[in-house]
Amino acid sequence: MGIILAIIVFGLIIFVHEMGHFLLAKANGIRVDEFSLGMGPRLFSFVKGETRYSLKLLPIGGSCMMGEDDVEDVGEGSFNSKSVWARISVVAAGAVFNFILALVFSMIVVGYTGYDEPVISGVIEDFPAEEAGMQAGDRIVKMNNKKINIWREVTYYNMFHPGETVDLIYERDGEKHEVTITPKQDEDGSYLLGVTSPGELKKANLFTALKYGIYEVKFWIATTLESLKMLVTGTVGMDQLSGPVGIVDVVDETYQQSKDYGVVVVIMQMLNIGILISANLGVMNLLPLPALDGGRLVFMFIEAIRGKRVSPEKEGWVHGIGMILLLALMAFVLFNDVKRLF
Question: Which of 71, 124, 166, 219 keeps 20 to 30 A from 263, CA to CA?
Fold first, then answer.
């Protein structure tokens, strides 16, 4: 069941990503040669208008082929005949649609389950928060100049910055107070401020579902960027990377843990996973790396600034090398995922 659910979740996210490219291409009068879900040999396809729509064997990706790599094709309706800003909008649309999908999922989850305000329910005796004078009902506003909107931002900040002194701003009875707190190590080795979670989610209306849905997406985007920073700085190792196989394992484990609570709970859990993956995919695609949408955008922004396109041959070489490195990384991640299973 985990495999089926993972294919549905991942397939929907990829479909929306490629649909973003497709819709913006059509809006800009760009010819789309093929819109496909999956990779590898075609299982099913049909042609409508100028576009072939395909379902392919391997459920691990998709494509919206617009002839963007054919630099000699500058005829009417071709990708390369359009203005640089039109091309930028088409390339960026995939990631933007992923963020929109994550927001829709977040609004559904928040609307059903409620939202977690960063309001503490109490403090732990003999821990820094108590010593700093914090009390139940205090609303955490900022931690080291990082604005706090939901409770998990407090938890994750502490996780990403263990033991670091925090300049914390909290609000009580409409007044803001600032304290400096150094987390204290607990018996299990974790560093704690000594504040306890709200414990109860607040019921959302349409406005708060939108508001806290945005906060949720923002949280996962920030978490993805923080995780990448930790990867680059060596705080976490490459062996902790996970890919499609790892996602299937997580989806299956989540399903097994939630199935006894009913269909609605399973759906909410899948939507939560969908928020994480969709936001993550949006961020990863915008990274300024060759072969990714972000890498293509770098060359287009250079073109917009200098008024002339970078040599297509040079750009092609860069993206080609990037694709080789990306495939090598995918193979490494797949090896990691399989190794963790056994």
Answer: 219
